[in-house]
């Protein structure tokens, strides 16, 4: 394994040294691929996992080393050229050449695994104390800020905003969560469960200022001082976290001629062009409904799609049809979702009881099960997954046809 140097030719070039890139490499090696593999990643760290960044790293419960996806020895055994701290600048699909900050690299196959970058809000010039959370460095910087600044406003009521609010509150901070929807994660979980989540946050002492957008971030003497909402209310803050979604990292592909539409557009086999594949948060591929496309941002998808991409690089023509899965941990609650929850889905509690803090929800669209959610019921949720597999193989509304970003 090398961490620097100029490489001109490789068998497979993976751009993005994170979970989807690393899983692609491992699947290739497991399948007996012996040729050279090069991985280019713009972060300085060995590949690490992001879910703990809004939980155990932000709270200080874990040291950063614990997020490593693989031990250095395991990485070394993969026998890859790992170019960390180097950025891909452009791609020429006709020759499969990627210009990187360590020089041009030509490959038999290129894997685009560059993930996504956080959306930002305008901040008054020279104002400190406004953060986003995507990288390990982001999480460590925010943790330091939390230690010195007890009044937090989290802008964004999605999964990341809800997790950050929970972690900040458990660290004893004064937390306000704000966003345009009426309840945390209403877009991802639907009303029934989002209402439970709103109660959970309220019980733990988070102030919810929801159902209203942010007008602007305010600063005073070079430091953030609050957030003004569209209804003119001002939420005072000594630190603001902006968690309003992420944009697929395709900036380096603008002149490539690849089809870019809120992600790298692929066919059902995850191929974006001859010998070029996309995987993980950056990839968009056809959904099961005609004319729909899907892009998923979750940890399990990144690993599952990587297996399909590796197989297809080696000559398979496997179609990627996942049953999406994601989880979130907030306070004492683990929520797990198998399938896709659409706004028009009918939600029914089929086991447990929300009042007891353990329940299972089944979602249906046009009578077809589309998702199962477990609230502190992991085993039961996993067992119900079978009905989604059966529904996926039957004709009718599909599990990954909607809820794409
Ligand atoms: C804070 C946080 C918490 C999360 N929690 C959960 C959770 O609880 N459950 C869950 O299911 N999912 C969770 N996720 C989502 C999950 O982590 C992502 O879906 C997953 O990381 C996607 O992996 P990826 O490899 O596609 O992209 P990424 O992990 O984003 O990796 C892409 C890599 O490519 C690099 N890169 C970008 N552009 C270039 C370039 N031009 N050249 C070189 N390198 C480049 C990036 O710096 C990055 O290192 C969380 C995400 C975050 C940010």
From TrEMBL:
InterPro entries: FAD-oxidoreductase/Apoptosis (IPR050446), FAD/NAD-bd_sf (IPR036188), FAD/NAD-binding_dom (IPR023753), FAD/NAD-linked_Rdtase_dimer_sf (IPR016156), Reductase_C (IPR028202). The lineage of its organism: Bacteria, Bacillati, Actinomycetota, Actinomycetes, Mycobacteriales. It is an enzyme of class 1 (oxidoreductase). It comes from the Bacteria. Residues 325-396 form the Reductase C-terminal domain. Pfam families: Pyr_redox_2, Reductase_C. SUPFAM superfamilies: FAD/NAD(P)-binding domain (SSF51905), FAD/NAD-linked reductases, dimerisation (C-terminal) domain (SSF55424). GO terms for molecular function: oxidoreductase activity, acting on NAD(P)H. The keyword Membrane does not apply. GO terms for cellular component: cytoplasm. Residues 12-306 form the FAD/NAD(P)-binding domain. The gene is thcD_1. This is Rhodocoxin reductase. Its EC number is 1.18.1.-. It comes from Nocardia macrotermitis. Keywords: FAD, Flavoprotein, Oxidoreductase. Its cofactor is FAD.
